[in-house]
């Protein structure tokens, strides 16, 4: 990954709305993923 792409990814990850959306999307999936992985 290039330096520009890396900085862009960090900027996206640091966005508060992105964090809230990601956790709201993935937290309900964690038990399902854990069950699927056994």
UniProtKB/TrEMBL annotation:
Record keywords, A-Z: Membrane, Transmembrane, Transmembrane helix
Transmembrane regions: 12-35
Keyword Transmembrane attributed: yes
Protein name stated in the entry: ABC transporter permease
